[in-house]
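assembly run, all chains below
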Amino acid sequence: MHMIVSLDWLQEYVNLPARPAELADRLALSGLNHECFDEQAIDLEVTSNRPDCLGHIGVAREIAVLWSQSLRVPEAQPLASGEPAEKLTHVDLQAPQLCPRYTARVIRGVKVGPSPAWLADRLRTLGVAVINNVVDVTNYVMFECGQPLHAFDFAKLQGRRIVVRESKPGEKFTAINHQEYELAAGTCVIADAERAVALAGVMGGADTEVSEATVDVLIESAQFDPLSVRTTARRHNLHSPSSYRFERGADPEGVDWASRRACELILQLAGGVLAHGSVDAGSPREQPPTIKLRFDQIPRVLGIAVPDDDVRRILAALGCQETHVCGHCVKVTPPSWRADITREIDLIEEVARIYGYDKIPEDTNVKMAASTRTRQDRALSRVRETLVAAGFYEAMTLSAVDEQWVDAIRPWTDAAPLQTSMPILRRADSLRQTLVPSLLAARRHNEKLSNRVIELFEIANVYLPIEGALPQQKRLLALTSGSGFLEVKGVVEALVRRVAPAAVLGVGEVDYPLLESTRQCRLRLGDHPLGYLGELSDAGRDRFELRGSTTVAEIDLEILVAAANLTPSAQPLSPYPPVGRDVNIVVDEAVRWAAVEQLVRAGGGELLEAVEYQETYRDRNRLGTGRKSLLFSFELRSSSGTLTSEEADAIRDRIVELLSRQLSAELRA
Amino acid sequence: MKTNQTSSGGGLAAFVGELDALSLAATEAFGSASDAASLEVARVEFLGAKAGRLKSAQQGLGKVDKGDKPAAGKRFNEVKQTVEAAFSAAQERLAKAAKPHAASAFDVTVPGRPLRLGRLHPVTHTIADMKDIMGRLGFTAVEGPEIEDEWHNFEALNIPRTHPARDPLDNFYLAAARSAAPKGAAPQPAAVQGAAGAASGGPPPLLLRSQTSTVQIRVMESTPPPVRIISLGRVYRPDTADATHYPMFHQIEGLLVDRGVTMADLKSVLRLFCQSYFGAGEVHIRFRPSFFPFTEPSVEVDMSWQNGWMEMGGAGMVDPHVLRAVGYDPEEVTGFAFGLGVERVCMRQHGITDIRALYENDVRFLSQF
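ok done. output:
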């Protein structure tokens, strides 16, 4: 929250340092940061725990403490020569939980007119509209001490009374902005005998506002429940300097001072006769507790000692009442305007910020400690390295998607997605259950930019609902590529070999409409489902408005990390040379390479070191329909001696015999 | 004949002199031959099988005195080798020079076969650097759920129900509509009961975490002190996306709880971190008072930077309420916490001026890091 302070105005309460820059800098280092400043004013950022600094006197008090100056606060003792206030009006406080205290003063016979230049100028410096002397005074006092006030045209209050209550069902209210609001149930309103005349702490009503015709005024100074004011302001989208201050809590002891001060200024600027006393409903503030500050806690928290005398001086200057002091501790009662100070640690912070954080050293010997990288962290670094080496760029996409993408592909859950009550961005309100739609959207964006090579991966979480518990947060890797199924499969194979070299990558059947029916598969790692891989179908490309061919894969990283071997053991290497053989067989179309490889491995036995698929060849004339030729090679190596050509041929023959027997394969010359 | 004798016959010195002259002339002729034709002319002149000058010189050998013959023969062979070597050197030289004009040339200036390496996202680089430095300072990186309950996102962090930070419009609460819980089910846990506006009935509300401090709470709840961690990951706050705001961003937060941890330790760790991260030159840390519910005292952290101060993030001493909420005794231990926005540091480091570029995934952008 910004609070513009006028330097001319501040000077009324405290002597200022000569240069505004010095003032602004010192305030910034003690808790009041600034956006900007000039010779007239400083635009301060006030943190939400310091509503006392939402008025000039509060800021002046900080200055007085920092520069050891005295603070001059007006007495605010207006001459009350009229009849007793309680004979003129009555306050019926029906909602004490929403309004702990309400005070009213009445001035009769005011002459409403323009404010004098000194007051109007100060309000204008703050960017506050100037209206008339009575309304301007209520604003002026609010910016002086932080307590919001309201002035009613007394004659327009039906029954000449104030009722503080919750709104009635369907109750309507016209604010001074001349807009009508239907009030939500439970809204705290200020009413007269008939109707709501103000939204408590938020905005006054049009019917009772002070105008040129006003003669008698009722000045409200009250305390409202912060949450109630916030709810009202939010619900009706009516935010005001008043609601802002009530939301953060105004000084309860300042209620009467502000009322007197406003009356004093109105009498001075608009004349009239102030009724004697005030009508004061509600309970005064409970006596704040005494807080003990043990002197030894200061070095324990701050790391530096502050002399006891400095501690006491700082607390006293801030308005704390000292009730006890000994060599061990000091006890104080915090001032009413500092509701944020309730504990020892709060006092330590006050001492620290006034004494100066610059006194805290930045070169202590912090204890050494070992730190470890988690297995997941190390495994994911390898995943990233591998994908970068494979030419993929890392993308980062939003954790939610437009609901229309939820059913694009549903590999991980069938449950309805979790949704945020408002979209995170544009229409993205469904927490995603797969990363693929987000990556395809990124791919489309790149296509629109005419980027030719679009190889993307992302590592992120998806959120799978669990009834009655936090959702399962699953870490996935997704990739999208412009190359085909086998190229991306090669990347996945390389990734598995790099991270989990002993794990066996398998494939299975799957049928996602997003993917081309013959070019998609499920991926397995050992016995665990790992993910899926496939080329986009025409329908899938249309759905994501993609022009170029696209392959996607998605992998459950928990499975991969669980299988990861991050510190492999070295294997003994045979000193003898390998012997290789090429084989060309003709089989039925239905025979899959995986079946062939399995038999080659079985036939090769422990001497088989590697099997390498070479190519598939089809030729109806030479091979016949429904037949294909598979070309592959394998290497044999023994750890105990050099294999002879005869030994290698014997193994090849055994393999060919196996293939022929089990898969009806024919050896092709 | 007398003359002949004197000039060439019988004398070793004369023979050797003649040979030396020949050697010199031949070397020069071969060396200066500019193409194959002129080299051939020179070859015929000196090495010609019938009338070459070397051949003639060889005939002179017969006229040398018998006793001098071995020396003269040796000398002749040396010269012959020199001349032949000069010829083949010239042949080689001309062959080399002729090459570009002959076979189609290999152009070494053509680019190599492209090796397309990918890139990591700049935010990943920044996080990795931060984790690395904090790791060296003894902080272990931890992660936690992005969808949280109100206890971990608010209550335990000393953010009571009345605090403005809990406003539904300032957080991404999950919509309750899809919950299958029957109406009037189990009563609200104490944590979510409260003043006006509290949801009635149904399961406890969940929301996208607005800070990674939630992870610190989870770690402290399950680990006795000392705790020395950084928590990092995605966080979410309803902000309209513009050049400096995005509703999703990354945070990194440090936490050290132990006996005798002070604000001076906080300042020192932050100085070491900034010094390591930003490198060269002496770095200083400045604290400005601030307010965060979960720390007391709370400060904004500035780092000295190019003769000024650069805002780094928020920090403070862990509030005793927070320590108590996780079952620690504030009389036994103290702790500090600090938080940095990853994107802000990343953007400053790489001169990125619009945060949205980080999530647009234009490969031209990504290829720069």
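Chain A has a mean pLDDT of 95.

Residues 645-663 of chain A form the longest helix (19 residues).

not gonna interpret more than that til we talk
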